[in-house]
Amino acid sequence: VSTARDRHVDGVLRDILRNADLARPVPRMPEWSLPKPEQRSRLAMVVAVGVPLLLVGAVALSLLTLSAADHGRVSPAGSATSSTSSATARANPAGTPSIQVAPPPTFGPSLPANPKVGVAYPFRLFTHCGIRSMPVGAALWYANPQLGDINPPPGWGNPFDDGTVTFTSSTTAVFSDPRGNRASFVPQIPGGHPSAFPCF
Amino acid sequence: VDLVEKASQVDWEGAYLEHYDAVYRLARVVLGDHSEVADVVQMTFEAAYRSRGRFDVGRPLRPWLLGIAAHKAVDVARRRRLMGWLRLPENHPSSEHPGETALERAVWAEVAKLSPSHRAVVGLHWVHGYDLVEVAAILGVPAGTARSRLYSARRRLGAALGGEEQEAST
Question: Which of A19, A62, A76, A95 is most buried, by the most CB atoms less than 10 A from its CB?
Answer without folding.
Answer: A76
